[in-house]
Design a protein that fits this description.
By secondary structure, the chain is of the alpha/beta class. It contains 31 helices and 16 strands. It starts with a helix and ends with a helix. It is a multi-pass membrane protein.
């Protein structure tokens, strides 16, 4: 027996020693780049059999928020790959480590300076390529030579914008781009006279340059009509690939997609602004690798550095250049035939000569957000360009001030800490018997049962109890961008700010409307369909399966599908309204009321199947004899439904409706995805999406936590009052 035990221990130790070290890389590369990355990592593993690299793809915003949460908890990937503008916030939070501390100074000299951006004179990122900038792409099938000035752009755009089938609708546009987002029109701002922010992060939005930029975009859309009335990134991308647009403003990251589609396209600078004779200045930067600050093990750090050097090596950069056509950051490769013989890269280098480095300061997030909000109001017609620039400046200054504010503790902080200590001691005292019995059980004859239950207790604590109380704790703290690793309890200040803010109450009213309207239609449609299927429809199983599909499909897919359906010009909803009802197209996503309505329609589609299934279950429990008696009494269908079906369904439907209210009140996905994070101009937010933006867009974690606690208390009060009212009704 001892020999067998010794053998097992030796084998276990051998396997443990032989097991390769696992490294994690989180990134946001598009599909074509992901394929090349995966190939490069597999080659790295062959060269280093003692290492395994697990790459994980996340969307850009999800990458930011997930990494922040993981790094704050002391974990996360060894390397994170993303755009250069993330290093300012991450460095301020102290969740990425400077490369200067672990790499020799000479290492940085082999790269283009754009690929090694600095924040506060320290390197926090190393990019494998440079560019990531906007340019004009043109379809050579439709256009042989690109325009050189904005006057030429407008003239050619008018020629290319055509109604090819004579049905009164434009079938091909001269120019398309995601003009609702500031990043895509930002190059024009300095071309009209002044940059939108200073190097140290101060906004410069209330300027004639920004006003002229607003006016220029409006003229392209409304006066010259060479761009669609609604156009997000995916719409512009699809139109260009389908030869329904002659020109497109997009970045070098999109080349691989168009090459894969077999397009013959060229690139050029965004045309010179004719009135100022200045070139638009696209923001030029990199997407690169940053180091997790939580790596403590020297061996793991050495392995991570080896991986970084491999991923930024000439051989890997050349692989990316050959496969997806990016400009390598390693200066030694600039004379390589893969670069010299690539016409797109040569033109791209020419385009970058007029570019400006991407700002990496954290304040740029507040500038982008305020610019986006007010600009979309200008597009919707609720603000003039002059008013939009003034409001954008005011909002940017306020948001930057909130981002950088470090609240100091007041007297209430000590009260909170004292109450927390008393509550903790009280919980220990009340549960002392249970704790003692649990500890004894772990040592008693039934300890196996206790050990089997222990993982469930640990899981509940880790997933529910700890996050709940942690959220309450940070709601009383000054947890934000600058205190990410050193926050402290400061008092009730966030709660006071929230409940005295008129915007909070306006969002609360909108959330009530959102919840009531959605749950009303969920329950009404659900009961209606359940009654029809139960009493009238043949093949009940088929119809149950068919109607449950909206609920079964992931919300992310459904929301984005509905967003495409609501497009003003190409969405099937407006096409139906025009062709069959002869109505004018609705600006679903460009106006606040219709955008909010679009969110409600989408959520109704997603929510009624659950209520239908609950109602079907309730209908099965109603005795058929009651209906037979009603037939004998000559009750019609409405009377049978009103006096039999509905009263007997209420005990089933009321708890379901209560759950539906809670889910809908907290439903972030639909509003965020259908309205594209609150478009137009942050006017479709509900409370939960407002909280998400405050936390992950503006880094106001303490304030967001306080608002989320208020939401929790509102829902608790509503749930208790509903249950009490239902109990009193049933016991009369």
């Amino acid at each position: 027996m001892k020999s067998l035990l010794l053998f097992i221990i030796l084998c276990t130790g051998f396997v443990s020693e032989a097991a390769p070290m696992r490294l994690q890389l989180w990134h946001q590369m598009i599909y074509g780049h992901r394929v090349v990355l995966s190939e490069a990592l597999r080659n790295f593993e062959k060269e280093n059999p003692d290492l395994v690299v697990q790459e994980t793809y996340r969307e850009t915003e999800e990458l930011r928020s997930s990494y922040q949460a993981a790094a704050m908890g002391g974990s996360g990937p060894e390397l994170i790959y993303g755009p250069s503008d993330q290093i300012g916030p991450f460095a301020s939070m102290k969740i990425i480590r400077p490369w200067d501390e672990v790499l020799e100074k000479e290492f940085f000299g082999q790269f283009d300076p754009l690929a090694t951006p600095k924040y506060q004179d320290v390197h926090y990122m190393i990019g494998g390529s440079v560019g990531n900038n906007l340019m004009l792409l043109y379809n050579k099938k439709l256009l042989k030579n690109p325009p050189k000035t904005t006057d030429e752009l407008i003239a050619i755009g008018k020629q290319m914008t055509q109604d090819t089938d004579g049905d009164g609708k434009i079938d091909r546009y001269g120019l398309v781009f995601n003009y609702t987002e500031p990043f895509f029109f930002a190059p024009f701002i300095p071309a009209f006279g002044a940059p939108f922010m200073t190097e140290d992060g101060k906004p410069q939005l209330n300027t004639p340059a920004l006003q002229k930029t607003f006016e220029f975009i409006l003229e392209l859309r409304d006066k010259h009509k060479i761009i669609p009335k609604e156009c997000d990134y995916e719409t512009a991308n699809a139109l260009f690939k389908q030869d329904k647009a002659a020109m497109l403003i997009n970045g070098d990251w999109s080349w691989g997609d168009y090459k894969g589609a077999g397009m013959d396209f060229g690139i050029a600078r965004i045309p010179l602004v004719s009135s100022t004779q200045k070139w638009p200045q696209p923001l030029v930067g990199t997407a690169g690798y940053s180091l997790n600050v939580n790596i403590q093990d020297p061996e793991r750090l050495a392995a991570t550095i080896k991986l970084l050097k491999y991923l930024t090596s000439p051989q890997v950069q050349k692989l990316f250049t050959e496969r997806v056509g990016v400009l390598p950051s390693n200066l030694a490769l600039r004379d390589d035939p893969a670069v010299k013989n690539n016409a797109l890269l040569q033109v791209s280098s020419y385009i970058m000569e007029v570019g400006t480095p991407m700002p990496v300061v954290p304040e740029v997030r507040g500038v982008w957000d305020s610019l986006r909000v007010q600009y979309q109001k200008v597009l919707a017609g609720s603000l003039t360009p002059a008013e939009g620039t003034r409001e954008a400046q005011v909002m940017a200054e306020a948001q930057i001030r909130d981002m950088n504010e470090v609240i100091q503790p007041d007297a209430s902080a000590f009260v909170i800490q004292g109450l927390a200590l008393i509550l903790f001691l009280w919980v220990l005292w009340v549960s002392r018997t249970s704790l003692v019995n649990f500890i004894k059980g772990l040592q008693g004859p039934q300890r196996f049962v206790y050990f089997m239950m222990l993982p469930a207790f640990i899981g509940i604590f880790a997933v529910i109890i700890y996050p709940f109380f942690y959220n309450i704790a940070i709601s009383f703290s000054n947890f934000n961008l600058l205190t990410f690793q050193s926050w402290q309890i400061v008092g009730f200040q966030h709660y006071i700010t929230a409940i005295t803010d008129p915007r909070f109450w306006s969002l609360f009213v909108k959330t009530i409307i959102w919840t009531v309207v959605n749950v009303f239609f969920h329950v009404t449609i659900g009961i209606f369909l359940a009654v029809i299927i139960n009493q009238v429809m043949p093949a009940k199983g088929f119809w149950r399966t068919l109607f449950i599909i909206p609920w079964a499909v992931p919300q992310y897919i459904t929301a984005l599908t509905w967003r495409g359906m609501f497009n003003q010009e190409y969405g099937p909803i407006n096409q139906f309204l025009q062709q069959f009802l002869h109505l004018s197209p609705v600006q679903w996503l460009s106006q606040p009321f219709t955008a909010f309505t679009a969110c409600i329609i989408t959520n109704v589609w997603l929510g009624f199947p659950f209520m239908m299934i609950v109602a079907l279950g309730g209908l099965q429990a109603i005795p058929h004899s009651l209906y037979e008696a009603a037939y004998l009494d000559k009750a019609n269908a409405w009377q049978r439904f009103r006096h039999i079906t509905l009263p007997l369904l209420m005990p089933v439907m009321i708890p379901a409706a209560l759950l539906g209210c809670i889910w809908t009140f907290n439903n972030l996905n639909i509003v965020w995805l259908v309205s594209n994070a609150g478009e137009p101009g942050d006017q479709t937010h509900i409370l939960v999406s407002y909280v998400y933006k405050a936390a992950f867009n503006l880094y106001r974690y303490g304030y967001a936590a306080a608002v989320s606690v208020i939401i929790f208390l509102i829902l608790v009060a509503f749930s208790i009052s509903s249950l009490v009212a239902q109990y009193r009704k049933e016991t009369r």
